Amino acid sequence: MRAAATRRGVHRVAAALVLFTVAAVVWLATAVQAHRVAALTAPPPPADRQTHPLHRPPGVPVTAAPYAFSQLQPGSHQPVAYDPCRPVHYVVRPDGSPPGG
Is the pTM above the cut of 0.90? Predict the structure, then answer.
């Protein structure tokens, strides 16, 4: 009787180990995939990136009116924002602009 109980205990431990290993592999694969997606969707840092903010943004006006952000970070309630340590590069296309515009 004691040998059967010991075998059941060993089987339970083995099953728990297998279950834990499978869960760890699934979690790791998910984390790696999320990192790959983030790497594909985020632009690489530009060569002129600084280690400190380039400027301070103006203060937010205090208002009692409700507001909503137009876009949020994926899987978060944080608003989409720019990195203050990166300069903002842009291109102006003069097609259709007013003279001297």
Answer: no
DSSP character string of the chain = -HHHHHHHHHHHHHHHHHHHHHHHHHHHHHHHHHHHHHHHHSPPPPTT--SS-SSPPPPPPP-SS----S-B-TTSSSBP---TTS--------TTPPTT-
**Across 5-9, 21-25, 46-50, least confident range:** 5-9
Q: What is the pLDDT of residues 40-66, one digit of tens each?
A: 666 777 888 888 888 877 777 777 777
Q: How far is CA 52 from CA 46, 48, 55, 78, in A?
A: 14, 12, 9, 21
- Contact yes or no for 73/66 (Cβ under 8 A): no
Q: What tokens were used for 82?
A: 């720019």
